[in-house]
TrEMBL record:
Broad EC category: ligase
Annotated metabolic or biological route of this protein: Cofactor biosynthesis; adenosylcobalamin biosynthesis; cob(II)yrinate a,c-diamide from sirohydrochlorin (anaerobic route): step 10/10
EC number(s) stated in the UniProt entry for this protein: 6.3.5.11
Additional free-text comment from the UniProt record: The a and c carboxylates of cobyrinate are activated for nucleophilic attack via formation of a phosphorylated intermediate by ATP. CbiA catalyzes first the amidation of the c-carboxylate, and then that of the a-carboxylate.
UniProt site (Increases nucleophilicity of active site Cys): H434
Originating species: Desulforamulus hydrothermalis Lam5 = DSM 18033
Protein name: Cobyrinate a,c-diamide synthase
Domain of life: Bacteria
Length: 462
């Protein structure tokens, strides 16, 4: 299958690749191109911004959690109807999981999907040294095809022309040289950029970014580079059988809870589950006739007064759990299920109360990185000893959580190997670990099997 595709990579974090990617997606959409966005790694916020810019749902290509075949298959499946696939990298081009070589890096994904790379570098304060920088990245791994570069943050037209001459000397195309516009800096929060759901100025900013890209990036040359990507015929997988048809899963989704891997949700649907979305912020009741609840991550700490005041929803969730309904929660969902959540300033708000612990926000990062999670006991996600691959990223910590009820033993990320994490009891599992269900298919099947068993029991079936 021939899919024109490129990877937008940076020399390092903060070089401007997300802003450039958003402008590129918006500019291509403006020209009538159906562009399919992707994000390397476990990030949730950037895919939401991509979706707003491209008008197509963005997906995560993660080569640490998923196999090379799974990564390629996801690219193929989501790009079938696209004119072009644009993949935004993570961190610097060769940065991956700490201490594991190229695992999880943009470079590894570019090789897996056989896509040419557009390298973005900061031109601020650089002259001919830019050639040494680009040459180093270009020769570090010959299996990575760097087909062109974009100099971000040039100071003048003269500087732009100098960058062009330097890259000509090196023999690599300068696909663009964008100037510094501080007024277009994307707003940030402690977990990264402000999510699309909360950025009211995003539509205007996207149009301004599209203007810059059309002025200062050679879109025709970029298209030519994307078309050089080789054919991937024969790589697409057969979808899973819809084993759990009839199972209805309530999924929390609103401004407070929106950190989901879209492909995780797609995989649950492909397995037969019907996803019914609800809002812990705005709804008074759960969806009707459901057989399980999934509360993902997000920013509940930004909406504590509203979440705490919605007593009707909290009571609905408590009643469902007491009836034995499967309840799975990740990160922000774990915080919401605690007895209480406290801000950095010490203000405490009542949570749902199903997890016997207190969640407290901190003024520093509590956990970051890929983790291998080993189940401690029989739970919604499998039997003891099953290993799952996931990711942690949070600024809160739990107090008074009973260690004997820990859901997992973790290795990787921050902290000692074998540390306890999360809470599991009967029909409930809540943890800081984010899972990608297509990359952890056994866990997805086990969760939906528990929902199917609950459905059967509620109907009094044998």
């Amino acid at each position: 299958m021939q899919i024109p595709r490129i990877v937008i990579a940076g020399t390092h974090s903060g070089v401007g690749k997300t802003t450039l990617t958003l402008g590129l997606l918006a500019a291509l959409k403006r020209r009538g191109c159906r562009v399919q966005p992707f994000k390397v790694g476990p990030d949730y916020i950037d895919p939401g911004l991509h979706t707003a810019a491209a008008g197509q749902t963005s997906h995560n290509l993660d080569s640490w959690m998923g196999s090379p075949a799974a990564v390629r298959q996801l690219l193929l499946r989501q790009s079938r109807a696209a004119d072009l696939a644009v993949v935004e990298g993570v961190m610097g081009l060769f940065d991956g999981a700490r201490g594991q070589g190229e695992a999880g890096s943009t470079a590894q994904v570019a090789k897996i999907i056989k896509a040419p790379v557009v390298l973005v570098f900061s031109a601020k304060g650089l002259g001919r040294s830019a050639a040494a920088l680009v040459k180093g990245y270009r020769t570090f791994d010959p299996a990575v095809t760097i087909g062109g570069v974009i100099a971000n943050g040039v100071s003048s037209e003269r500087h732009r022309q100098y960058m062009r001459e330097i890259m000509q000397e090196l023999g690599i195309p300068l696909l663009g040289a964008t100037d510094n516009r501080q007024s277009l800096t994307m707003p940030q929060r402690h977990l990264g950029l402000l999510p699309a759901t909360e950025n009211n100025d995003l539509p205007k900013m996207l149009q301004q970014l599209a203007d810059i890209i059309e002025e200062q990036v050679d879109l025709a040359a970029l298209w030519r580079l994307a078309r050089q990507a080789p054919d991937l015929t024969g790589e697409e997988a057969v979808p899973p059988k819809p084993t759990f048809a009839g199972v209805q899963l309530a999924v929390a989704r609103d401004e407070a809870f929106n950190f989901y891997y879209q492909d995780s949700l797609d995989f649950l649907s492909e397995l037969g589950a019907k996803l019914l979305f609800f809002s812990p912020l705005h709804d008074a009741t759960l969806p009707r006739d459901i057989h399980g609840i999934y509360i993902g991550g997000g920013f509940p700490e930004q909406f504590l007064p509203q979440l705490s005041a919605n007593r009707a929803m909290k009571e609905q969730i408590r009643r469902a759990a007491r009836r034995g309904m499967p309840l799975y929660a990740e990160c922000g969902g774990l915080m919401y299920l605690c007895r209480g959540i406290s801000t950095v300033a010490g203000e405490r708000y009542e949570g749902v109360g199903l997890v016997p612990a207190e969640a407290k926000m901190q003024n520093r990062l509590a956990a970051l990185g890929y983790v291998t999670a080993t189940l401690n006991s029989p739970s919604l996600l499998g039997e003891p000893g099953r290993q799952l691959k996931g990711h942690e990223f949070h600024w809160s910590a739990l107090e008074a959580l009973p260690a004997e009820r820990a859901a997992y033993r973790l290795s990787g990320g921050r902290g000692p190997a074998g540390r306890c994490e999360g809470y599991a009891r009967d029909n409930l599992l809540a943890s800081y670990v984010h899972l990608h269900f297509r990359y952890n298919p056994a866990a997805a099947n086990h969760l939906l099997a528990a929902c199917a068993k609950y459905k059967q029991r509620e109907r009094g079936a044998p």
